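Lecture 7 notes: from sequence to structure.

We start with a single chain of 212 residues. Read the sequence below before looking at the structure.
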Amino acid sequence: MDQAAEIAAIGDMARAAFEAKHLARETTISAARRTIQACAASIRATHRGEFDVAQALADEAAAHLAAADNATVSVPEVRATGPLADAKKEYAEARLTLAFVRGDALLGPQALGVEVAPYLNGMAEAASELRRQILDCLRRSQLDRAEALMATMDDVYSVLVTIDYPDGVTGGLRRTTDALRAVMERTRGDLTTTVVAARLQSAIEHDQSTRR
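Now the structure, written as tokens:
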């Protein structure tokens, strides 16, 4: 084979490789978008207390991720970057938000089919989602429940803050953990204010009852 033919063969090989990667990427983008949509709906359902709906939507997201994984078997570099990594983070967030709120056992990264970095980022965001639950509890005067959820936020932060590796390794976990800390500080302030007010009201009512 002369060099012209060899060069042409290399061109054919390159086009085939890029076409495979392009098709995998297109499949991944579509699957990631559908995953993120299903996960957002799952989290909303969790906040409404519609746990069966949340579970079904998370299962739907898992199916989209499985399709993306199947499409990227021959191009694994597409799996760990871009929209698929974001979708896996959202999937972990949806699963963990449901588990935190419903009190389920937590599934780890391997069980969810998610790499450690997007899993931990999803865990941080799931903990941040508990702020909404806590505020709902405060409005319903469910202080014990609010304090239990606050403890879960603390537990998550206490672990994540110890993971000190470059952002290129953790997928920007430090920033996500810092965002969680800010949410925790606001939430702790709201919880403390409500608890103090409740204790003061209780003390006033007790004092009034003893005077009668």
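The two ends are 108 Å apart (CA to CA). Keep this in mind for problem set 3.
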